[in-house]
């Protein structure tokens, strides 16, 4: 949808905007669903989630069309602007209209690995961070939940800012590599600080950069696959990346259990984030 509705110099903003749902959802949804469950019961909280999903389905059916030319609310100026941008994209995407051709492109596998390594870090950190703050840093569990919510709230600003800036400079890999470096830095500083307050601040900063690389990595995928095959390529890209992502919580759990502390598990996660950073340096040299 992003490839069909946005020219290449606006795709990162578009990706960042819709991907912010992953940040906005926990910020708004967690406390609301918790209150519904506490006041009425867990079944009623499921009914509330079902109602929200049904509302999303109705909105999608009513407002979304496959292309601008099929949309009732797109005026002529908008249609011409979008189609001009898409035409430019097609010239840049010559030879990327077949699944086999995309799968033979090494850049596709580099992007898949980058996204997989980032996902390992995201799920590994987000799964164990509340327990880490409570058990190691002595922060009450409820307070750690607010730390997570604050991190997701800041992530909205980080994602939108990176989306706008990467569209302006057309250097997506720079921002993904920068986020990887920040994840390593904030996690290291959080692990070795003795201050509970500083640990909370660093955790908020850490969560705020965890989600940002995902949207921009997906944007880079548009340079190796045309809209005609993006659905299939996106499916392959996502399934491999999230299969790798399952490693994250297992690594933290297993290594932490063997070493008797979270430190070993988080250090193991950093090795995957470091791989992402190194691969991004290679992508930068290719102009991504």
From TrEMBL:
Location in or out of the cell? Cell membrane
Quote the Gene3D superfamilies the UniProt record gives.
Answer: MFS general substrate transporter like domains
Where does the chain cross the membrane? 45-64, 107-129, 141-161, 173-192, 198-221, 233-256, 262-284
**In the UniProt record, does the keyword Transport occur?**
yes
- Known InterPro entries for this protein? MFS (IPR011701), MFS_dom (IPR020846), MFS_Na/Anion_cotransporter (IPR050382), MFS_trans_sf (IPR036259)
Keyword Membrane appears in the UniProt entry: yes
Record GO terms (molecular function):
transmembrane transporter activity
Entry GO terms, CC = plasma membrane
UniProt keyword terms in alphabetical order:
Membrane, Transmembrane, Transmembrane helix, Transport
Ranges for domain Major facilitator superfamily (MFS) profile: 1-288
Q: How does it sit in the membrane?
A: Multi-pass membrane protein
**Could you say which residues form the signal peptide?**
none
* Main location, first listed in the record: membrane
- What is the protein name given in its UniProt record? Major facilitator superfamily (MFS) profile domain-containing protein
Species of the source: Brevibacillus panacihumi W25
């Amino acid at each position: 949808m992003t490839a069909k509705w946005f020219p290449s110099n606006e795709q990162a903003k578009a990706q960042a905007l819709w991907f912010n749902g992953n940040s906005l959802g926990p910020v708004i949804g967690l406390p609301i669903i918790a209150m519904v469950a506490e006041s009425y019961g867990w079944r009623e909280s499921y009914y509330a989630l079902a109602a929200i999903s049904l509302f999303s389905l109705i909105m999608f059916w009513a407002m979304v069309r496959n292309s601008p030319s099929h949309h009732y609310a797109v005026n002529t100026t908008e249609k011409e602007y979008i189609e001009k941008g898409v035409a430019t994209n097609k010239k840049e995407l010559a030879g990327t209209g077949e699944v086999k051709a995309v799968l033979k492109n090494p850049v596709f596998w580099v992007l898949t690995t980058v996204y997989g390594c980032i996902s390992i870090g995201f799920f590994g950190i987000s799964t164990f961070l509340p327990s880490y703050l409570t058990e190691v840093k002595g922060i009450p569990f409820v307070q750690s939940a607010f730390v997570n919510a604050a991190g997701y709230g800041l992530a909205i600003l980080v994602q939108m800012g990176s989306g706008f800036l990467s569209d302006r400079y057309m250097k997506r890999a720079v921002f993904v590599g920068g986020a990887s470096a920040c994840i390593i830095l904030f996690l290291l500083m959080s692990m070795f600080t003795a201050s509970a307050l500083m640990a909370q601040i660093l955790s908020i900063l850490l969560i705020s950069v965890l989600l940002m690389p995902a949207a921009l990595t997906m944007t880079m995928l548009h340079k190796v696959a045309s809209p005609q095959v993006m659905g299939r390529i996106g499916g392959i890209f996502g399934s491999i990346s999230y299969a790798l992502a399952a490693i994250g919580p297992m690594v933290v759990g297993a290594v932490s259990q063997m070493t008797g502390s979270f430190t070993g598990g988080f250090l193991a996660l950093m090795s995957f984030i470091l791989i992402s950073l190194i691969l991004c340096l290679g992508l930068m040299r290719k102009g991504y």
